[in-house]
Amino acid sequence: MNQQRRRIIKAALALGVVSSSTAFYLLKQNKNEQTAFQDLMEGLVIPPAFQELSIQFPNAEQLIADMHSSEEQNGDTLVTILKSLISRDYQQSNWIQVNQWLLSHTECVLAAAVIQIKGVTNAIEDEQTFENAPVEPFLKVNKWGPQETYKGVKFNEQPDGHCGIWANIENMPDGLRVFIGGKERHIFPNEKGFTSGIYDEVDAFINTVGPSDIVIYDEINHRKQVIGTFNVLPPFDFYQYPNGKPSTVFGPIENWGPKKASIGDVFNKQPNGYAAFWFRLNSMSNQVQMIFNHETFHATVRKGLITSSFPAQYLPIQPGMYPLELKDMVTQEQIMVGEIEVMAQK
């Protein structure tokens, strides 16, 4: 191993603990500076989860060498220079997020260089993983959702297509990871808990009937807690058209409302002043519209419920029977729900 590589390894060892805001021990400190070099190498641990750094910084060794040459003054050692650069990173908020941990840019480059020289530690005798973590009730979960969907039906669909799950948790600590159905998912902590969900393989997830535990893993304290179980239910029955043909989108209409209103009455008035209808039925699609009084309005789809609201200016101004229809924007399939009776004012 050349001298430059020896200096990088020794610098990493001397820095020891990575003092990120989450106090994550990225490098295992070996305090005996006189230990043989091979022992020093063995004392350095880079977890497999940080393998991505070597890809993110493919020329990390050269970057460390450049840092040394550009910052070296008065015979400063590489360790002194790196400490100064790490400190500067913290002052300037020059962070990089790696598996929910905030590390300084310099720390990441240093770790990448060590990975490229030595590789990650793939087998640690007492390695702590999600799989072998004990289950403990360390979080107070107030509520979470959504908790179920029907086979093939997306739940809480977001603009980018992923299906979101949220949890309200008190005093949630930093650095937690979330596993849904045994697979680690993205987690976005906030002051009330976190949001997560299914970002890839959405179709495979929603088409697999059965339960999927939602598990929080506390990597620092090596413990995990099941906060709930999401269920994909068997598919529902479908609406039957008068000719006997089944719908491919909508379930049977169980109920809807309101069924009566008076001229000038903003029925089922919403906080924004809109009138609204509700429909008790399931839908395989989230892209549904309501057609009422010759106008088309957006509808919101949830498990077992479709709702649609609209400005009061679109309310009928004449008494009569006004049909209500639901339309799937993807297949263009359209079903008649019923007719609302609009009566003259008393």
Model description:
This protein has 346 residues and is an alpha+beta fold. The chain has helices at 3-15, 37-42, 52-56, 60-71, 78-91, 105-118, 202-206, and strands at 95-98, 101-104, 140-145, 148-150, 163-170, 176-180, 183-185, 188-190, 193-198, 210-218, 223-233, 255-257, 260-262, 275-280, 288-292, 295-298, 300-302, 305-310, 320-328, 334-343. The strands form 5 sheets. Strands 4-11-10-6-7 form a 5-stranded mixed sheet, with no helix packed on it. The chain has a 5-stranded mixed sheet with strand order 13-20-19-15-16, with no helix packed on it. It has a 4-stranded antiparallel sheet with strand order 3-5-9-8, with no helix packed on it. A hairpin with a 2-residue loop joins strand 6 and strand 7 (183-185). Residues 17-41 have low confidence and may be disordered.
Q: In short, what is this structure?
A:
Helices cover 20% and strands 32% of the residues. The protein has 346 residues and is α+β, with helices and mostly antiparallel strands.
Throw out a few tags for this protein:
single chain, 346 residues, alpha+beta, 5-stranded mixed beta sheet, 7 helices, 32% strand
SSE map:
Blueprint: H1 3-15, H2 37-42, H3 52-56, H4 60-71, H5 78-91, E1 95-98, E2 101-104, H6 105-118, E3 140-145, E4 148-150, E5 163-170, E6 176-180, E7 183-185, E8 188-190, E9 193-198, H7 202-206, E10 210-218, E11 223-233, E12 255-257, E13 260-262, E14 275-280, E15 288-292, E16 295-298, E17 300-302, E18 305-310, E19 320-328, E20 334-343
Parallel strand pairs: 4-11, 13-20
Antiparallel strand pairs: 1-2, 3-5, 5-9, 6-7, 6-10, 8-9, 10-11, 12-14, 14-18, 15-16, 15-19, 17-18, 19-20
